[in-house]
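Support request, please re-run this one:
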Amino acid sequence: DPATFDLIRSTRTLGCFQIESPGQRELIGKFAPESFDDIVIDISLFRPGPVKSDMIRPFLEARQGWSEPDLLHPSLAYALADTCGVVVFHEQVLQIVATTAGVSLAQADEVRRAMGSTTGQAQVQEWWRPRAAARGYDPEDIERIWEVLAAFASFGFCKAHAAAFALPTYQSAWLKTHHPAAFLAGVLTHDPGMYPKRLILDDARGFGVPILGLDINASDETYRVERIGDELGIRLSLADVKGMSEAEIARVVAGQPYADLPDFWTRAQVSRPIAERLVLAGGFDALYGLDLGA
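Re-run finished. Output below.
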């Protein structure tokens, strides 16, 4: 969906799975994903190993055409072309080992695992170099390929795992693109993630979603979507009134609608501090014909 990728590239991804952190928003802005596979690569690049080993910079430079991708050897182009010559995935390590050593992918996975330790890496190097030479790789190519294997084998990320992460990433971006009010209401209700709710609310306003104030006759335990003319707005939740218990929220919702403040006080049976906070938060404004906004 082009509009969804426009949103992702815009970095306005607060609330979107995996791509909402400041670092990820910086990366997707520079990366400019255009496909689902790009999201898979993005998620795999933004991990401690690739960041510490400076894998992101050469990838971005090749991706944006600032440098030529280094595919190591023509026989490995099939494994490295999609990631601009940077080894990102475990599967690429398997493909490189299988191609250069002439073994199965299952055997190559055993090799990859062994390279996780210093002793194992030394043993693999002793085994791999003669096999690569026997398959026609010259000493210079062998040295370059080994340097990459030794540097990145332990940093690779399973592509299948990344793809499983990328699916809800794309789905959340699609929902935010096409149903921002409903999506952000869900984020606010269930898990605001790494940002305070005030930033999520500001983000909603930036997407043209009106924020509707607390209302004792309209608010409930969740952030709800309400239609205002041709627009959809988000109604603030009673759950964010400081100190208000679940039991008090349930009684308030069960008693709706209320005719006035005395009616509310009599039937909702909330504590005096909660009633005062509801008044100060504007919970009775609409009841008395006031419209002070949210």
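Residues 159-178 form the longest helix (20 residues). The two ends are 33 Å apart (CA to CA).
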